[in-house]
Amino acid sequence: MAIIIRLDRVMADRKMSLNELSELVGISNVNLSKLKTGKASAIRFSTLNAICRALNCQPGDVIEYTEDEGSPEGSD
Amino acid sequence: MNKREELIQSIKKTAHTSFVLSIIAAVLMLAGGLGLLAYTVASKTGTEQSSSASADEEETDDTEDEDRAKSAGKTTERATTAVGMIMNGAIMMVVGLMLKRISESGTPFVPLAKSFNISAALLAAESTVPSWLGSLVTIVKFGSAEQGVQMTVNLQFVFFGLILFLLGRIFSYGTLLQQEADDTV
């Protein structure tokens, strides 16, 4: 998929651990880890909102789009 | 407790109670069915009974035939009921195990397609198998296919089987949605 999660980068910038962030966001460690490693297939607006509030950043800082070479438009 | 958790708790409790009840019903039906089948197979035929009861008396051919037909009819009826009970017991057992998995997981959308298919097939088979096997017992016991044989096809069981199969497909779709929901953070 062409969507990349940059959560680890933002977390490193803010010097925030996974446990700390999961407490602030209000989701489990496991789910946050899934998101960080790109294993989650979707993200709720409420989760994204909580992450942006906790890390004081924009959604674009956490999620990045890169052109997927060789894959047709609209596919993942 | 929010509405979702309330619903999950309610599903868990109901599924657990239904699991216990269905397992009890399954054991009773299987035991009853097997007992009745054993009794039917082991019991004497009408002619054996009449010949042992009145060995010295002379009986007409008409009375013998009548006794034999009556006995064959009863045998078919009993064997059909017994096979039906065994099949119902098996269905209840499969359904019970499905309910156990639901009560343990807390969501109805666990992979149960195989169990649904098995119970649907058993239910559809119940349209013919009990009466056919019942008749087979009579044929084997009486040595002829003329008396007491009733081979019927009960279409309502086929219909219920199809509905259960469709429910299985719906649950499979629900499982997919559940997986998607679980993968959403």
The percentage helix of chain A is 40-55%
CA radius of gyration of chain B is 23 Å
Query: Biggest β-sheet of chain B: count, sense, barrel?
Result: none
Termini Cα gap of chain A:
5 Å
One letter per element, helices H and strands E, the order of chain B comes to: HHHHHH
Query: How many DSSP E strands of chain B?
Result: 0
Strand content of chain A: 5-15%
Oligomer, anyone? Answer: heterodimer
**What is the CA-CA span between the terminal residues of chain B?**
20 Å
**What is the number of helices of chain B?**
6
Helix-residue proportion of chain B = over 70%
Number of continuous helical runs of chain A: 5
Number of domains of chain A: 1
The fourth-level CATH homologous superfamily of chain A is lambda repressor-like DNA-binding domains
Sequence stretches where pLDDT stays below 50 over 5 or more residues of chain B: none
Order of helices and strands of chain A: EHHHHHE
Mean pLDDT of chain B: 85
- Here the CATH topology of chain A equals 434 Repressor (Amino-terminal Domain)
Provide the low-confidence segments of chain A as ranges: none
Shape of chain B: elongated
Largest two-chain interface: A-B, 12 and 4 residues
